[in-house]
Amino acid sequence: MKKNKLCQKLAIAFCSVALTTVGAAVIVSDTVHTINATPNHKGFNNWIQYGTLKYALKGPSGRVYPAGTKVARYMGNLTKPSKLSYPALPFALSLSITSSPIGITQFGGGDIAEAYVNLEDWQEIDDPDVDSFGTDIVESTFDKTDLASRDFHPVDSNNPDVPVANTDALDHAYGEYLNNIDFEHRSKADKIWEESMNKRYSAAKGMGVSQSTVDALTKEINDAIANHKKTGHFVSGSSDSSNASNSGSSNSSNSTAKPSTSSKSKSRVVKLRKASYRYTRKGKRVSKKLLKKGSYVKINGKTYRIKGKTFYRIGKNRYIRKVNVAK
């Protein structure tokens, strides 16, 4: 297979040039190479899943990949995956292997959403040896533009489309966040937010995530970085900041929460002596989820009277009952 690889690629390239001269979208011919799945007896479980496109997709290069085009994805050195579907894990139009001390290293690209693929069963492949360098798992294109992209869409608009979000700004914000971590002085609220944010960042990088979701998380991280530069903390108090940051739509210009004192009290971190609900400035409970007893939150130091009860402010339009805070 490897001996003919260069000749095959040159032949495809010449065909592509011939097609592009007439101004039509290039249709990739069926030039797929697949390795033979073999039982593994070396102690590694390298799992590959093949699939075929349900319908024709067009890449950013203008190439059209017809229905039936072969794709594959690599799960790693694990036990056999328990299910066929993993929506966040893309398929690749081109995927190769090489020998490695830890197993298989992926090469190739052209990420295709699972929703576009007819799924086949997982196959176990033998651990690669030195001679396996460059062996194709699947090769349905070598177009550099498409190999660097996941922006593929159905040729027929009647077929369901998968949203493709631009995550460049999100990646930049996440990189800035990593540069601002203060491991020695993180509050408990910071740690909870960081754990939640890291999970949501990974999810936002998956296939099929809307641009609005990516943009909202980008803004949240940038706001947290700005807050860290001012206060030394990523969050302003709520130990469930992801919930608080996503509920800004409840803000109202008709605020009913007013400070009960004019003293210039400094913000401080307090401990909850009992589980506490969060409320808006109008006294409306945010959700059924409670801040846990013993958790730490940051308050601005002032007290507020809402519907005859006394509250502390822990964030934008977020308040907790004063009686729930340990003295």
TrEMBL record:
User: For bias kind Low complexity, which ranges apply?
Assistant: 236-264
Question: Can you tell me where the transmembrane regions are?
Answer: none
As given in the record, the signal peptide range reads 1-24
InterPro entries xref list: SlpA_C_lactobacillus
- Which residue ranges are recorded for the region named Disordered? 232-271
> Which ranges carry the S-layer protein C-terminal domain?
262-321
Give the record's keywords alphabetically.
Signal
Key word Protein transport present: no
What name is this protein filed under? SLAP domain protein
Origin species, per record, is: Lactobacillus kullabergensis
